[in-house]
């Protein structure tokens, strides 16, 4: 089974916030997290909005703002987070635009459903605290945005000031 990019990013955002703690000075913004994870800001903002909607984190705007885990987020089960992002759809699409001819008597769909639930169930007892225990926590704190290569000569970076007339 392969997780959606949004599920993977949600877990990484929550892990990053779990190691930040309650220090307001260390509270990262959505932009900070996106840069550190080398993920587009817009994708990160959508994931953060969903995590906020689920009550797992709070996002404060303005001076002194940033992202912080809620109490619910601190105690959340990884299985519950993955279920929320992955949804409860079937692993295979038996009823797609061209329905599978075996769908009326096939046992594969049920077997895959049980395997999917076993996957989620294996994640249920794991918490964010488990994920950020040593050595992961210190690694997360040390992540900095990757260095961007300089543009070729004569090419301006987007957002740079023009030096022309």
Please, could you describe this protein's structure?
The protein is mainly alpha-helical and about 160 residues long. It is built from eight helices and two strands. The protein has a two-stranded antiparallel ribbon. A hairpin with a 5-residue loop joins β1 and β2. α2 crosses α3 and α5 packs across α6. The longest helix is centred in the N-terminal third of the chain and has 16 residues. The chain is elongated.
Give a quick summary of the entry.
This protein has 165 residues and is mostly helical.
- In terms of DSSP E residues, the strand content is under 5%
- Broad structural category: mainly alpha
| Straight-line distance between termini | 56 Å
User: What's the tally of helices?
Assistant: 8
Q: What percent of residues adopt helix (DSSP H or I)?
A: 40-55%
Number of strands: 2
Largest sheet: 2 strands, antiparallel
Report the mean per-residue pLDDT as an integer. Answer: 81
Instruction: Provide the low-confidence segments as ranges.
Output: 159-165
Silhouette: elongated
Order of helical and strand elements? HHHEEHHHHH
Rg, please? 20 Å
What is the strand arrangement across the widest sheet?
A: 1-2
Oligomer: single chain
